[in-house]
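Quick check before the chapter quiz. The format below is the same one you will see on the exam, so make sure you can read both the input and the output lines.
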Amino acid sequence: MSVFESIEKGPPIEVFALNRAFLEDNFPQKTNLGVGAYRDENGKPWVLPVVRSTEIKIASDESINHEYLPVCGTDLYTTAATKLLLGEDSPAIAEKRAFGVQTISGTGALRLGADFLAKKLGKKVFYYSEPTWENHRAVFLAAGFETGKTYRYWDQEKRGIDFDGFVEDLNGAPEGAVIILHTCAHNPTGCDPTQEQWKKLAEVISSKKLFPFFDSAYQGFASGDPDKDAWAVRYFVENKFELLAAQSFAKNFGLYCERVGNLTIVQKSEATAAAIHSQLTLLVRMTYSNPPAYGSRIVSKVLNDPKLRQEWMDCIQLMSQRIISMRKQLRDHLIALKTPGNWDHITQQIGMFSYTGLNEKQVKFLIEEYHIYLLKSGRINMCGLNPNNIEYVAKGIYDAVTKVDNTV
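Here is the expected output.
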């Protein structure tokens, strides 16, 4: 009898199972709106030109070797990443109250931060939005948090943020609870608080003595402006919050498989920095020992070179504008078809994803009848739309809404 006999098969991860089903589908008009990756106007993966040219420079640089990096990454990379999030002239960086640690993309940053909060600060309770990215809850519980609770976020009727519910739930949170906040382009809804709403949330988090943990997966990619997309976290830092922030360069650099991330730590003063850094070093050492160099070298070279940085800015402008254009075109097609309901939320949302408001029955219909693959929540990846399939997708949504029971 095998020692592994008692192991049960785990449930499939929805987005990857959906992608597998798409790849195995031979239908000529099949459309993948599930996986969270950018696609160009021909529906193909896009390597940013500035990334490609930087890869060539790195490959031809004979001074580069394959020795270990420092456990927490190189200062050149972590400083550039932290400045991108907090601002080039951030007082927190100048006063050495803020620093970064290289991680295995955004997920690794979330896990490292959660490990630190649970194991070193004894944090036990965390809150995440309902809905949120599916991995938030799993990562924090795996790190040692005992309780994960939700705060209200999506209002199905108005297809926007339930801000009153959001504030009420934060007011009910226990002191010291960790609050996961999406910096911009909320996943999966695409709905972000306004600046005034962020200010109100900051008041509540301060008064209730809660601990903010920002997840920044789409900076620059959402609006095309990294400064605009980082407004919320910068506002909190300017108002003297201590916080953690997870950064990912998967979307805004197109470095999905290179796993390039950064964990930014902001404190009251420089006095605690050495101790925090040492504990994070130990956590990295016992988890994966050392970060990978390749992707971080690309990001570091681009962010630290003014010419390359501008080329990158041009790339994220192009990506964000294509997404905005697809939002408008999808909405216009749905209106032209006289699709029942109001579809303004599609253009009011921002970033890669749109929470369409479609229910599970309608999603099932789209997959089975139209071979349009999307998550059962109704979330679609706007990057999966292009001039060749947008009319087909709009027609599928029209049929799903008019032919399928619209009750959940």
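If your answer matched, good. The first strand starts at residue 31 and ends at 32.
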